[in-house]
């Protein structure tokens, strides 16, 4: 590999196998010189842009960042790959460094972004969210900056969307938004206050997460046999829950053009019914 451009103390552009590649490693650009030969090491993070346009964007982004953000992002990505037992798209390093830098700048300007999907992200991507929290601790330790918890959710979605080993059937943000929308429909249809701190909400969110994952994955591509008698019973004796389920199914099928199987309809109706019964019991007890 031949060094072509030094972006900063921690990043250089090299020519490797007839392609321009960005190499990131702590201190790699400190004493480097254009034209020098560089030997690839395991400690290096390698980003191979798809074309010249993306190379220029990535190089410009890196050059604009204080070098400590690349070092920090590399540490976070490395730890996340170990803890989540996966491999990320190489661009995550640059994307995360840029995100953290912008988040700190917003913090200094008192421009804090509220993550309206924070709870849903915690439910849908529990492990990634936990790593997002760890990333905030690393930011505090390495930069002395205390970012709000909302940022853990934003970072978690970056882990999900850049995961090469566990590709999602749908964009992670779209999935999380769908989870939030379906939850709102259910609470609105049942006339309940949507308090994310209640056990009822949290329990439903967990069930909806796995329900939506199955729907998006389209695991029931050929309608399996289902309990006709149970479905009829729910339709007749649990009218409110059944009609609520129909609203949810209609919304999902309109939005993503994926059919919801009868088995999933039964599953969803039962959980909606459980939520309504739990709320009614709480009213009696209060």
The main pleated sheet reads as: 4 strands, antiparallel
Distance between the termini: 71 Å
Number of strands: 4
CATH hierarchy: architecture of the largest domain: Orthogonal Bundle
Give the structural class: alpha+beta
- Low-confidence residue ranges: none
Q: Regarding CATH, which class of the largest domain? A: Mainly Alpha
In short:
This protein has helices spanning 52-64, 67-83, 92-108, 118-124, 126-143, 150-161, 172-190, 199-217, 228-237, 239-256, 262-285, and strands at residues 2-8, 11-16, 19-24, 45-47. It is α+β, with helices and mostly antiparallel strands and 286 residues long. It has 3 domains: 2-61, Transcription Regulation, Sacy, Chain A (Roll), CATH 2.30.24; 67-161, PTS-regulatory domain, PRD (Orthogonal Bundle); 172-280, PRD domain (PTS-regulatory domain, PRD, Orthogonal Bundle), CATH 1.10.1790.
Task: Kindly describe this structure.
The chain is of the alpha+beta class and 286 residues long. It folds into three domains: 2-61, Transcription Regulation, Sacy, Chain A (Roll); 67-161, PRD domain (PTS-regulatory domain, PRD), CATH 1.10.1790; 172-280, PRD domain (PTS-regulatory domain, PRD), CATH 1.10.1790. It is built from eleven helices and four strands. It has a four-stranded antiparallel beta sheet with strand order 1-2-3-4. Helix 7 crosses helix 8 (199-217). The model has no long low-confidence stretch (mean pLDDT 84). Residues 64-169, 170-282 form the PRD domain. It comes from Lacticaseibacillus zeae DSM 20178 = KCTC 3804. InterPro entries: BglG_antiterminators, CAT_RNA-bd_dom, CAT_RNA-bd_dom_sf, PRD, PRD_sf. Pfam families: CAT_RBD (PF03123), PRD (PF00874).
């Amino acid at each position: 590999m031949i060094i072509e451009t030094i972006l900063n103390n921690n990043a250089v552009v090299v020519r490797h196998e007839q392609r321009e590649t960005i190499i990131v490693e702590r201190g790699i650009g400190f004493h480097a010189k254009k034209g020098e030969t560089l030997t690839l090491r395991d400690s290096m993070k390698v980003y191979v842009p798809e074309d010249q346009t993306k190379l220029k964007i990535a190089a410009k982004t890196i050059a604009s960042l204080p070098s400590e953000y690349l070092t920090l992002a590399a540490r976070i990505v490395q730890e996340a790959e170990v803890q989540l037992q996966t491999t990320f798209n190489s661009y995550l390093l640059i994307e995360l460094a840029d995100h953290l830098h912008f988040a700190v700048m917003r913090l200094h300007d008192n421009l804090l972004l509220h993550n309206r999907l924070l709870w849903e992200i915690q439910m849908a991507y529990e492990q990634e969210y936990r790593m997002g929290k760890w990333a905030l601790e690393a930011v505090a330790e390495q930069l002395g900056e205390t970012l709000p918890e909302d940022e853990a959710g934003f970072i978690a979605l970056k882990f999900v969307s850049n995961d090469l080993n566990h590709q999602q059937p749908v964009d992670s943000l779209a999935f999380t938004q769908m989870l939030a929308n379906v939850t709102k429909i259910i609470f609105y249809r049942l006339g309940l206050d949507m308090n994310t701190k209640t056990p009822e909400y949290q329990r439903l969110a967990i069930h909806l997460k796995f329900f939506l994952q199955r729907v998006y994955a389209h695991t029931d591509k050929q309608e399996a046999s289902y309990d006709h008698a149970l479905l009829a019973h729910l339709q007749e004796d649990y009218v409110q829950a059944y009609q609520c389920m129909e609203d949810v199914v209609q919304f999902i099928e309109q939005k993503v053009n994926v059919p919801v199987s009868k088995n999933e309809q039964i599953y969803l109706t039962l959980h909606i019914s459980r939520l309504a019964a739990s709320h009614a019991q709480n009213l009696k007890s209060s």
